[in-house]
Structure formats: structure tokens, C-alpha cells
Give the backbone structure.
Amino acid sequence: MTRNKKVTSYDVAREAGVSQSAVSRVFRPGLSVSQKTRDKVMTAANAMGYRPNAIARMLITKQSGMVAVIVSSRANVNYPEVLSQVSKQLAARNKRVLLFTLDDAEGLDDLFEQIWTFQVDGVIALAAHFESEKLAQFEQHKIPVVLYNRNVPGAMANTVCCNHEQGIKQLILELEQSNPKNYLVLSGPKDSDVANERREIALSLLKQFGAKDVSVLFGDYSYQSGRDCLAQWLEKNPTPDAVICSNDTMAIGVIDEARDNHNIHIPNDMSVVGFDGITSSAWKSYQITTIKQPLEQLVKAAIEMLLEHIENPDSPPESRVLTGALIKGNSVKRI
Amino acid sequence: MTRNKKVTSYDVAREAGVSQSAVSRVFRPGLSVSQKTRDKVMTAANAMGYRPNAIARMLITKQSGMVAVIVSSRANVNYPEVLSQVSKQLAARNKRVLLFTLDDAEGLDDLFEQIWTFQVDGVIALAAHFESEKLAQFEQHKIPVVLYNRNVPGAMANTVCCNHEQGIKQLILELEQSNPKNYLVLSGPKDSDVANERREIALSLLKQFGAKDVSVLFGDYSYQSGRDCLAQWLEKNPTPDAVICSNDTMAIGVIDEARDNHNIHIPNDMSVVGFDGITSSAWKSYQITTIKQPLEQLVKAAIEMLLEHIENPDSPPESRVLTGALIKGNSVKRI
DNA sequence: GTGAAAGCGCTAACAG
DNA sequence: CTGTTAGCGCTTTCAC
């Protein structure tokens, strides 16, 4: 029962009086083995506490059964849940998550080295800005990649995205109902692909809607930056009619700052919208009007896409865009 | 440059005009190779895009360089940050995180099977209830484990814990300042080790403090359960003077429910304390008095402990208890 | 300091 | 259906 050395398939084979390959077969699903052999092997294996060595299997099958997931250490409130979904859904497909946390863009090269040596079957990128040159490296190494909520301009890539344009349009339609005279756009950091996309879309749509007075500020996605940006803005400017935040967390910061230090009433004095639909956006004290990303479906799409490309390396790159749901909170002025 | 097949150390050796083992030496840190050989090898390797195969190395060294981290899919607001820290700090020690998400206790056996086959160097358990019998399995397989914020009664184990007792005592001391007549203890779910510990400690300390009127309700750590529990309580009971919540999220729910549906003013009509010190506990709308867990130090301790036991499998089990910091918010009545 | 040779534990043809 | 036989790509003695 309690062995000192690791027990191998040879040990089990000897004990069960069969060949080593018989043992191997028993432990591989879908291979035909006689019931008699199977019983003998299982008895011996259980008695000895044998477990197949996945490393050895990886070496020969050239499939590690692991998917690298790249996340950012910068806390985007969204990723934990995405990560949890990814892990769960991959587990259901018999794959494991090898986690890579990215501190800053510099770490990317190191990280790539790791990914190559670990022979992962595929990669899901929840973070990081990918130049098309980086993508080319994956192609060279023949490792399928799926980008989650990020686009690489001018490159073919597998991507799964929330429909930012459609979402932001809905938000602006909500805001427009009360005919705001001016807009403040509170963008996420300039080194975030998602933030840049959301900001540019907002600006371009506002232009289409004929909004004249539009200003932009940059935060870093955090609560505090939401507060700081609004405070700083109000030092020299009147209260904006409408604030479009690149994520919910900053929207919450904006709301707290408005109420706390400036006696601004939401939504009567100022409308605020966010994006993401994080849990706390629905909390009674905030009730933000926002777009809820279809997390589960996004992840599902990403994983399907990845597995498809693992099994069929030559299938062409694909992009899927899923639509978020407008959550009508209580942060937008109504007529 | 662009090869179709994976390039191996043999390919590089041939190209560089050296033996395969020379190539191996060049890619293993700390082995003496002449500069000349090293140059030849590196030139060839770079030209061919060679990367050592970590899987093959694992097979022979019996060290996978991977640490299994067990997390719960049930969103505890704390874990994402812990996980991020774990990943970062392990990366610094040249180890990778293999992520396992646990849905419910049933999945534990399956999960263990996975862990054995993947030959991980160690395990960090952020979730799951571990019977001492489970721990014995790890011992059998000679895989070091560190339990994060959970204890296994009656078993020797490596554990890293926040000092719940000391933390809750501080919270009660805060609450006692206004001499509450009665207490409501809002516990986390019964299947959570941490929740059980926090609840029992709170009850036992309240007894010591001479509190007579103490009631217990069970939530599931979520915002909504905080709201629901308070609402349900108030149906048949008067407003409690003090509410001790097992985590911040429920405390936030309690506060929102009190203000929203019952016109209870916090902290004048009712004091509320939480536990964890999550980001949102400091948001202006809540400002919860709570205990902030020393996340970074907890993780650091856990990882040091794990690495120590990986390098030195016979070192004795160890427990480290770290003290959290009292955050004085604005949710406790002052005199 | 270098090369030859022997595996690590398993899978995958291939005969029987 | 079962056993035999080659490896997977690397690390690690051991002579030289």
C-alpha cells in the first residue's frame, strides 16, 4: 500500500501478471481490454496506489492537456470570474489551466519563453496587448491562441469580444433621453486595449449623436481614479450632465465622489453610466446603468474556438462578437 | 528559422557540431561549459528557434515545476487577489500555477486524481474542506500541502492563517464601546471552514464579554444573503444593536438592506462589522469597520513554507498565524 | 570540458 | 485481445 518509490506501470504489470502495455491500455479510456485483464490490473493498481504519470504521457503524445491562461495582475474586477469560468469549462473538456500572471508589458517575452517550453496545447489571453508580431510567434510555434476582449489591428486572430459599439450606443441612447448639454468621458488607462476601444467608440458615437461639448479624462480603472478624476474636473468646471465611464468601478468612484464631496445628486444633477455589469454595480447604493458582459457565453465561445483550433490546427482564424445586456439602473436621469 | 517539426536538442547539436549533451548543459543554469561551445550552441539554437522541452525535463528530474492551487468556484471576493499574489510570488521562485477549481465537495476526489497524475511539486489549498484523511493521502504521495486560512482539527498540517480570534476580538471591542443590548451574528455557510471558525470565535468571545442576547443567522457570504438575512430577521424582531458579519460582502448587503427597506441609520441605529478588508469595504457609501487580512504576507508565508517542504520533504509541519489590521470605518456607533 | 550511453514512464505501432 | 518493441526529448553518470 505505502510504497516508498513511485509505482510505475511496470510494477503494476508484474504484480498483475500481465504486460506493461496491458496496464497502459486499462488506464486509457476507449481502448478495448478484456474484462479479466482489466480486473487483474485494477486490483493490483489499487493495492499499490498506482496513478498514471501524466508527464510521461505528455512527452509521447505531445499533448500536455494544459492551456496557458494569461491574466493581468492589475486587478480588473472582471477577470476573476472569467478565470473561474475558464477553469471550470476547460476542466469539463479535460484540460487544465496553467496560469500566467503578467505584471507589465516587459514581462511578456519571458512569459512567452515559459509558454513554449511548457508545451501547452493552447493559450487564452485575458490580458496583455498583443502586437501582430507576437501573434506571429504563436503561429510559428503552432500554438492556437484566443484573445479575450481584445483585438489586434491588422492581423488575423481568434478573438472573442463583447460588442462594445452596440453596448455603448445603448448607454448613450439612455443618456440622450434627458438631452445632456455636455459629456464627460472617463477612459481607462491608455495602455489598455479595451479602454482605448471603449473610449474611441464613445467619442465617435457622441459625435454621430451631435454632442458638442465632450471632454475626456483618463483614469486607471480603479475606484480611486474615478473619484480623483471627477474631483479634479470639478475644480475648474461645472458639474457635467452625463459621465460615461469605461468600467463600473470608476463609475462607482465617480458616484461616491459626487455625493460625498460635491453634494451632487445622482441621477438628477448628473447621469453616470459604467460598463461590465460587475456584481457591485447592482448594489443598492449605486445601481449603475451599465452593460453586462455575457461572461459565461464569452468564455464558452473562447473555449470552443480554442479546442477547435487545437484539434484542427489549420482551421481559419475566427472572430465572435457577443452582445451585452443593458442594465437599467438608477444612475441615469429620466424625464 | 521556420521549422515544421519541433526542433530538439539533437537538431541543435548537429547544427552546432557538438554532442546533444553539450546542448543540454548550455540550457541548464549553473553547469560549466566552455564559452566556445556555449556560443556555438546558442547561435544554432537561436537560428533554429530551439526551446528546451520542459515536459521531457520533468520526466527525468521528477520535478514538474508546477504547484497545484485549489480555488473555489464560489466567488469569495478575496481569492482573486490571493491567487494573483500566489502566481506572482511563485513565478519569482520559478514555479508555475496549475489551477484547479472546485465546484463542490464531491469534486474533491476527482481533483485529487488529477493532482497525483500531474506530478505537481506541491499544493496550495485556498478552498475545500480537508479531512485529516485527505491530508494523509498527500503524505502518502509525498506531496507537500499548505492550507490557506483553514485548519484541520486533530491533524498536523502546514497552515497559514489570519488570526481570526484576535481580529474578531478587536471588532467586538469596537462594538462594545456603545454597549449594545443585543447582537446578531451573520455567519457564512456551514460548509465553509472559515465561516464556522469565525462564527464560533465570535460566539465564544461574546459570551466572555458577557453579552446576553446573541442570535445567529446563516448566509452564504453573498451580498444578497446579507440583505435577505437582515430582512428576514426584521420581520419578527426589532433592529439589532450590533451585527457581526463573517465577511465584508454580507456586511455591505446588511447595510444596504437596512437603509433601503427599513430606514435604519448606520451606525446610529445599528452597528455593523465585517471581515476581510476587501476593496469595496472602504468605499464611501459603506466604510465598514473590519479586519483587513494581511494578504501579501499570508501568501508569502504560504509559499515560503511550501518551498521549504518541497526542498526538504522531512521538515515538520508548521503553522503560521498572522495578525490582521483593524480598519476603523464608519459603521460602528461611537459614544 | 566533452561525448557516449542509459534511462525517466509512458504510448503506439506491430505481430501474434 | 495481448505482448513486444521502439521511441518521446531530455538529464545524468561515467569515461576520456
Q: What stands out?
A: The mean pLDDT of chain B is 91. Chain B touches chain A through 53 residues (CB under 8 Å).
